[in-house]
Amino acid sequence: MKVHVLQHVPFEGVGSIGPWLAMQGATVGYTRFYESSVLPPTTTLDLVIAMGGPMSVNDETSLPWLKSEKQFIREAIRQGLPVVGICLGAQLIASALGARVYAGHHKEIGWFDIEACSPTADCFQLPSRETVFHWHGETFDLPQGAVRLARSAACENQAFQFGPNVIGLQFHLETTRESVDTMVANCRDDLVDGHYVQPEAALRGISDAALARINSLMTQVLSYVVRSRR
């Protein structure tokens, strides 16, 4: 399996996705946009994973590579490739599909519950309720033709599926203790007072069992989108 990761900043890596990729024997390529914006032909790939980042999908003037990245995602979807987007990655998928991305009513930073919606039987089934890691200030409209998979108290569109093998997750299931540490170290200025912004101690205080649950759920999402390509 040939996988391509779209990485936007050094401190938002693949986290728990790394071991899953290794177990698949995947050949993994990266476009690290903070170093180079060169993208491979989508025809050579089996899976695209778009990671998070502090920028907005609307920053095309200051970050012109966003245009080519969205075109790359759009072409991957058009070709039927499995695509998973996480946080900014989900917003990029939504934008590539023509949906609006904009500032949410609340910043959502910390460990908060998501609630599964009731998608059709042929969609990925999230747990009815799960505590997951959030770090975002923007949200998106649901793309036309997409199915909402989850919501939260702070954000109506937390996850969606488009077609059989494209999933966008506003939250971070790939989170590890190391990734929490790097997010806090690099984005500490985001931790302002807010109803859905937790203090640093709470961000770091999650249990090993909770991390294991969300990491397992991340592997389920990945396995689901690539199921037809095995």
Automatic annotation (TrEMBL):
Keyword Magnesium: no
Gene Ontology molecular functions: hydrolase activity
Source species, domain of life: Bacteria
Gene3D superfamilies (UniProt xref): 3.40.50.880
UniProt entry keywords in alphabetical sequence: Hydrolase
Location of the Glutamine amidotransferase domain: 42-181
A family per Pfam: GATase
One term under GO cellular component: cytosol
Keyword Hydrolase (UniProt): yes
InterPro entries cross-referenced by the UniProt entry: ChyE-like (IPR044992), Class_I_gatase-like (IPR029062), GATASE (IPR017926)
Protein name per the record: Gamma-glutamyl-gamma-aminobutyrate hydrolase family protein
Naturally occurring in which organism (per UniProt): Candidatus Methylophosphatis roskildensis
